[in-house]
Amino acid sequence: MIRLFNRNGKRAEEVAVDENGRRAVIDVRNITKTYQMGEVSLQVLKGISLKVYEGEFVSIMGPSGSGKSTLMNILGCLDQPTSGEYYLDGVDVSKLSENELARIRNKKIGFVFQNFNLLKRTSALRQVELPLIYGGVSGRSKKAKAALEAVGLGNRLNHLPSELSGGQQQRVAIARALVNEPSMILADEPTGNLDSRSGTEVMQIFQQLNREKGITTVFVTHDPWIARHTQRVIMIRDGKVVADRKVAQPLVAGESERPSEAEELEGIFQEVYYGGSREEYN
Q: What would the pLDDT profile of 149-188 be if each residue is shown by its tens digit?
């Protein structure tokens, strides 16, 4: 554990570290989430605890209704847990106000969504500048251009979304997520709306950014093939973590052909779901 201190020198919080000395970017401690629907209480998350460390590339998987989308919203500071604690880069964000959460989202989290979420009449350069504008950052054009060049779009700075392919639009979204140098990238089905070739290109970018720049990346996906390209898979079922395993040999994007859906499911379940200890399923 690493002890953090506030400006007055008082102890603020201990940050978990792994065996390699990496700090926990995400440290979720026994969080629950309950929705009140009239007189009925629906508990979606039932005491989830997990850590994601600096430089990790992690997938969170689960079937529909498992709670993975609710967990993603909490990890992205779009929602707050009913109980428990969530430390993001050493900061307890589980009880912050809406304005404080907005600042955290802008500074510490880069979002990439399945539907790109680009403004239709705004150039790629301006799309990437938006988080910098909200954050009051100077030198915006230079930083946005550098982010676009990092994802291979240095020659598409002034193009509108309608002038870009789906894969290129997602690369703009990745550049927008990167431009503020966040603590982590949170990606929700980032290849879900892309054809196989574009999906492979986008996955290559994520792997390159993680490998070369050490950017902590969390995918939320239902796709076993995508999960096999990451370093670790966390499986959610009925609001609980039922498996958390490292991927022994992560696939390299573009070097393997996609198998059938049945083979994908069998592979990921054999490697992750069935490969753990009995205690993981209790």
A: 999 999 999 999 999 999 999 999 999 999 999 999 999 9
Of 115, 146, 114, the closest CA to residue 128 belongs to 146
At residue 131, what is the residue type? Answer: P
> Residue 23 corresponds to which amino acid?
R
State pLDDT tens for residues 204-221. Answer: 999 999 999 999 999 999
Q: What is the pTM of this model?
A: 0.85
- What is the rounded distance in angstroms from the CA atom of residue 48 to the CA atom of residue 32? 7
- For residue 192, give the 3-state DSSP assignment: coil
pLDDT of residue 11: 41
**Other Cβ atoms within 10 Å of 225 Cβ, number:** 21
Which class for 139: exposed (0-12), middle (13-18), buried (19 or more C-beta within 10 A)?
A: exposed
Cβ–Cβ under 8 Å, residues 17 and 56:
no
Residue 24, classed as helix, strand or coil, is strand
Can you tell me the distance from the alpha carbon of 61 to that of 137, in angstroms, rounded to the nearest whole number?
Answer: 35
Distance CA 223, CA 265 (A): 9
Residue type at position 134: Y
How far apart CA 162 and CA 74 sit, in angstroms, is 32
Query: Which pLDDT value is given to residue 13?
Result: 63
Q: What is the C-alpha to C-alpha distance for residues 265 and 227, in angstroms, rounded to an integer? A: 10
Among candidate residues 265, 91, 88, the one with its CA nearest the CA of residue 186: 88
Distance CA 67, CA 251 (A): 26
Residues of the chain falling short of pLDDT 50? 4-12, 280-282
Identify the three-state secondary structure at position 213.
helix
DSSP 23: B
**Three-class DSSP category at 225:** helix
* Encoded tokens for 225: 């093939």
**Which single residue is written with the structure tokens 């919080």?**
13
Amino acid at 90: G
